[in-house]
Sequence to fold (464 residues):
Amino acid sequence: MGSEFKKIESFYGQLNTFRFEADVYDCEVFGEIPKELNGRYYRAGPDRQYPTLDGDIVINGDGIVSMFRFENGHVDFKSRYVKTERLLNERAARRRLYGKYRNPYTDDPSTKGTARDNTANTYGFYHHGRLFALREDSPPYELDPDTLETLGTCDFDGTLAAVGMTAHPKIDPVTGEWWGFSLFSQKKFDGDMALQVIDKDGKFTRQEEFHAPYPGLSHDFAVTREHVIFAVMPLTVDLDRVRAGGDFYAFDPALPSMWGIMPRDGSTKELRWFKAPGKFSGHIMNAYTEGSKVHVDATISAGNGFRFYADVDGNATDPRDAIATVSRLTFDLLSNGDEVESVEPFPGAIGEMPRCDDRFQMSRYRYGFMKTPEGIARLDWDTGVRTVHAIPDAPGGAQEPVFVPRSPDAPEGDGFVLCVVNRNAQNVADLVILDAMAMDGPALATVRLPFNQHMSFHGMYVPD
Ligand SMILES: [Fe+2]
Fold:
């Protein structure tokens, strides 16, 4: 091939590439699968078909979607590449054609006019009976929810106005709506963004453009029952740098992160932007409104939390500046100032990939879940207690945890935490199933895959 696969740096340390699709019928199970688990756990992640250019980043890998299928105490596993235009083009050429992340100036000339950015690698997301592989700058790819075969890109019958949709949508547990946004919604790269709302049946009800204060990364966002919150980070785009073959984003330490808040039933014209200097956020656990205060629980680092990007001078990020702690940002809508009111770290909550009991999205809630350096943690916002399921023999191996309620009307937090753990030394991967109310106890069950797992970013459990 003329080049070789190299490990790539990510949240999970140094990663290999795997390059295979799998079907494992009746996975090996230790313990007993809870009888309440009947459904499908989808995840999406990057896995490179061909070696990337030197210095490229983990986010640029080809999307692969996996599914754990739970049925009466048994679990089947399946993974499939999303057959994106770029993957199929590279396979036909039997070599890499596409260069760096979001940099068409590094591509083979034969790719001109093709969908070079849509790797479909970020979120296996299910809504109105359809499965999508999301990638934040592009239209969703739709997959068959049973076979994971690729059906094609989805523009909602031609109604998608922006160039793409975020890979961090929120489902309103009350209305069933799909809330999202588009970053660089018209590819102007001047902070052009759009709010997007799809009803429970899959029809757009809102598409409203606006401009962020600067053209920065906006990876995740938040919705409450009363407000929408957009988070813009000082990883800025410079088209001159891109044209010169450089990185799409670079961290600008002179800029504060910006948090735009608008009334949920209002207009993007009502957005009010707050600054949070020295507070970088990658992901949001949940958010809620309490009177005039808006609380956003997010991973917060002092510097560039996505450390695979360099700063605007080309310097690598000091890993200490990238360490994230889940923190509560509070914005006071009655204040006259333009800064966040407070940023309170949850004690000890270092880590990433925060989630909550999704039935409590957008509202005051009690429990959050996340990956930590030592394993998987539950945060109890009422007591401030953090409970850890330690995985000492697989340090850093836990991926994003998801919570599954025991039943649709079970109390908040009553249910199970599912989390894939890579056991690199043994070359296997485990899906551990924990009792969410006894996180520090032993796993209820462990589903073993007889091979290691590519990293996944985000996923979703869909009950039958
Ligand atoms: Fe993400």
Notes: The CA atoms of residues 269 and 459 lie 32 Å apart. The pocket of fe (ii) ion is lined by residues 168, 219, 283, 457-458 (CB under 6 Å).
